[in-house]
Design brief:
The protein is built from 17 helices and four strands. The protein is mainly alpha-helical. The chain has two domains: 1-194, MFS general substrate transporter like domains (Growth Hormone, Chain: A, Up-down Bundle); 206-396, Up-down Bundle (Growth Hormone, Chain: A). The strands form two sheets. Strands 1-2 form a two-stranded antiparallel ribbon.
Length: 458
């Protein structure tokens, strides 16, 4: 489960990122609470607008930010973006401390935060490939998700306490200090042990090369469709948690607690993903369906504590889906275009928020927060349905019962050996695939009949 931590570089990066992630979750929780309760009168649309401004640049700038990650040194990019994020947190913290913050300040902060993160995200996601071997890539991606969700377990709860104890402005100042951990970690890395990949050369059409690559991979198109639907309409946790906390008559402390409880399931999903040897499409489909059922069930919870308990299952299914999707995209993508493909992935994941968050916020305002959860649940079920329809509609795929199991279903190819995708590769396939071997001459002719290799008597 933790095999990637054996390497010095990844271990240093993991520790620095964990500290910074805690601060980031403190800041995100505080930002949404300030917009909802201090600068507006419980206006969920304002929270949705803030999220739209924060995640919109991921969508608009995707052709540029992915190319930056492929063309320039990722360590240098991260030095620049993390320093800029630290200065931005200090600026907003000072505005809040001196009582000058207005709603438009939060909107501007969210927009600038989104622009910097649009450059930071693809570089940070693909930087993992330089820290670990190909064999440990899926494990490292899952451990990154575990770090992110461990921080979610701690950060929002600490933010809720600090908002009440010392004020929202100081939370931003504390977050700015946590960026020092990432900057120190980047400076401590052993550059001689970093893996070197060829950078993108300057040529005509290189901005859209990532789009062309994804267009030729139907499996990635399906994954991106699932991620878009759940990212846009399902992953609006600040809206769900803040409005449901108000629905149950709770305050900032309970709002932070809901985010931390959500992280219990998220952390569990990330750690279980770290145990898997490879990312599989079937896990993504099951997680999408699980998210849909969990979100609809959460909308029916009668009390604060039953609602909080239901968030564990939402967190588990969400992170299982996102970690597996991230791992599948990274491990099956050509390294030469990985930055651009991951930028497109992050744009679809985060960029769907400007579309979904205002809609979900409007539903919460008009019909109540429970109906906003239903919208997220329906999006999850629709995402799972799209994936199942693609599998069943593929000319090479069919669904059948596994011979060794009474209940388990497996997806098989109708035309053996035709077009195995990278995500379908496995050691058992390699060990039992037909191999054509030359046989001794018979009657002056050489036979090339296929022979099935036998391993361990199978």
């Amino acid at each position: 489960m933790f095999r990637s931590l054996r390497g010095y570089n990844y271990r240093v990066w993991f520790i620095g990122a964990l500290v910074s992630n805690i601060g980031a979750w403190m800041q995100a929780t505080t930002q949404n609470w300030v917009v909802l309760t201090d600068l507006t009168d419980n206006d969920a649309v304002a929270v949705g607008a803030t999220m739209a401004l924060q995640f919109g640049p991921q969508l608009v700038l995707v052709p540029i930010t992915g190319l930056i990650a492929d063309r320039f040194n990722k360590r240098t990019i991260l030095f620049c973006t993390q320093s800029a994020l630290m200065l931005l947190a200090i600026a907003l913290g000072c505005l809040l401390l001196f009582g000058h913050a207005e709603l438009w300040h939060l909107y501007l902060f969210a927009l600038l935060l989104g622009i910097i993160n649009a450059v930071d995200s693809p570089a940070r996601q693909t930087f993992v490939a330089e820290l670990v071997s190909d064999h440990n890539m899926t494990n490292a991606v899952a451990l990154n998700a575990a770090s992110f969700n461990s921080a979610r377990l701690i950060g929002p709860a600490v933010a809720g306490v600090l908002i009440v104890g010392i004020g929202a402005g100081w939370v931003f100042i504390v977050n700015s200090a946590t960026f020092i951990a990432v900057l120190v970690a980047l400076s401590m890395l052993k550059t001689s042990q970093l893996r070197v990949f060829p950078t993108a050369t300057r040529r005509r059409g290189d901005i859209v090369e990532g789009f062309r690559y994804v267009a030729g991979r139907p499996d990635l198109i399906v994954v991106f469709s699932i991620v878009f639907l759940i990212g846009a309409f399902g992953m609006n946790f600040p809206i769900f948690a803040s409005t449901m906390a108000v629905e149950f008559g709770r305050g900032a402390g309970e709002f932070g607690l809901l985010s931390s409880i959500l992280a219990i399931g998220s952390l569990t999903g990330a750690l279980l993903a770290a145990r898997r040897s490879a990312a599989r499409m079937r896990v993504i489909v099951l997680a999408a369906a699980g998210f849909g059922v969990s979100a609809i069930a959460a909308s029916l919870m009668p009390t604060f504590w039953t609602f909080a308990f239901s968030l564990v299952f939402i967190g588990f299914s969400t992170v299982t889906l996102m970690t597996t999707a991230n791992g599948l995209v990274q491990t099956t993508t050509d390294p030469a275009v990985r930055g651009r493909v991951m930028a497109l992935y992050m744009a679809i994941l985060m960029g769907g928020t400007p579309i979904g968050a205002p809609i979900v916020g409007a539903v919460a305002n008009a019909f109540g927060p429970r109906w906003s959860l239903v919208v997220g649940g329906v999006a999850g079920l629709l995402a799972a349905g799209i994936a199942v329809a693609w599998v069943l509609g593929s000319s090479r795929m069919s669904v059948g019962r596994q011979p060794e199991s009474r209940w388990r279903l497996v997806v098989t190819q109708r035309e053996p050996g035709a077009g195995l995708g990278p995500e379908d590769f496995s050691e058992p396939v390699a060990l039992t695939s037909p191999i054509t071997l030359p046989l001794p001459p018979v009657g002056g002719r050489r036979s090339h009949e296929p022979t099935r290799s036998r391993v361990n008597g199978e």
